[in-house]
Amino acid sequence: MASAMPTSQSCVLCGQPATRACVACKTDLDLTTTYYCTTDCQRSHWKEHKAGCATGANRAALHRAARMARDIFLDFNNQTWGDKVLNVQERGNVLRIAIKELSVENIYVPFPKHLGLSASDEAAVLSHCACTGSLAYMWDVIGVLLSGRAEIL
């Protein structure tokens, strides 16, 4: 199945200007997408395209699972924050994070929004401070996200 889209690509089968891309392997990633000018060209090319299309679809699914896992990971850490960030300083391409560990009684506190961090810097702080623990908790979630895709790893 192909989706209509304006493109400057050429049909992989006949070389005519293509206005359709294979929906199964088309992704927002920098992966190769196969383009066609008509449904007839796509049907004629399917036997040759099938194996590559499945590989592209598996790679796209793996990237979607990784993005979902990242989002779940960051949300989990945002909800279960256990450190008091005293200060975050950017020096070149490095974030320096000053942290004071909290007592067991105050294990979860809100993530410090007053620091005014960009979204990417906040993600870096959340990831740095809670990477291993959260990934251990997420083992089952990652297993579900990658269900049926283990053979491509």
Tell me the span between the first and last alpha carbons: 27 Å
Provide a count of the helices.
Answer: 3
Mean pLDDT: 75
Structural class: alpha+beta
User: What is the 3D shape?
Assistant: elongated
Strand content: 15-25%
Outline the low-pLDDT stretches. Answer: 3-7
Q: What pattern of helices and strands is seen along the backbone? A: EEEHEEHH
Spatial ordering of strands, largest sheet: 1-2-3
The major β-sheet equals: 3 strands, antiparallel
Helical proportion, percent range: 40-55%
- The radius of gyration computed from the alpha-carbon positions, rounded to a whole number of angstroms, is 22 Å
Number of strands: 5
When the domains are counted, the total is 2
List the helices and strands and how they pair.
Blueprint: E1 2-4, E2 20-22, E3 35-36, H1 39-79, E4 83-91, E5 94-101, H2 119-137, H3 139-145
Antiparallel strand pairs: 1-2, 2-3, 4-5
Helix pairs in contact: 1-2
What does this molecule look like?
This protein is α+β, with helices and mostly antiparallel strands and about 150 residues long. The protein has two domains: about 1-65, no CATH class; about 70-145, no CATH class. Helix content is about 45%, strand content about 15%. It is built from three helices and five strands; from the N terminus they run βββαββαα. The chain has helices at about 40-80, 120-135, 140-145, and strands spanning about 1-5, 20, 35, 85-90, 95-100. A three-stranded antiparallel β-sheet has the order 1-2-3, covered by helices on one side. The chain has a two-stranded antiparallel sheet with strand order 4-5. α1 packs across α2. The longest helix is centred in the middle third of the chain and has 41 residues, at about 40-80. The two termini are about 25 Å apart. Residues about 5 have low confidence and may be disordered.
